[in-house]
Every structure is written in C-alpha cells, then in structure tokens.
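ok so I'm stuck.
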Amino acid sequence: SAFLLNRSSDLSFVVIDNYLPIATCRLYAINDEQVMLGRIVVLPEYRLQGLGTLVVKEAEKWAKELGYHTAIVESRDNKVHFYETMGYIADYSQKIIGETFTCFRMAKEL
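replied:
not stuck anymore, here's the structure
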C-alpha cells in the first residue's frame, strides 16, 4: 500500500510492505513554479521492481495537481539514466560534488 504524508513544509509519498516503509519520495517547493523531488529511496531488497518509478510518477502527479510546472531532482551521477528514462533532462553545468558522490540537477516539465 502507499500513502501521502502531508507536513507543513513538504509532502512525502511512502510505499509500505507489511508495515515497513520500502520506498519514499519527498516533495518540497522551490518556488511557485518548481518543486524538488528528493529523498527518493527504495530499500535494496525491493529494488528492480518498479518502485522507484512508482514513487517518482506519483510525486509528479501530485506536484502537477498542486499547480507546479517543473519537477527538479538532484540525481547521483550513476542514476542519471534512470531519470532520463522518465523524461528528465540533466543540466551538466549544475554539478554538485559531495563527500561521497557527485550529483547533477535534472528537470522535467510536468
């Protein structure tokens, strides 16, 4: 099952298996037009079952219903292709270098 958790500053989409949260995606406003999708996580033992795609697609749907026009993700460099398959376009000039991995900002019109 899945549910939407609505807090004052953000929304979270959570997929549950037998009371265990197995996949999540958080939405928070950047401005009136853009929403950031973050904390997109699927537990390792549940990967390759379409749950990452599910949480992103549902988050996009809710973002559009809330009036946002663009979804933004900051993707790890090794996950860029995953988001490209869903229509996101990487801006390789927007490189974020962290201590353990590199990310790129990606955008999709909703």
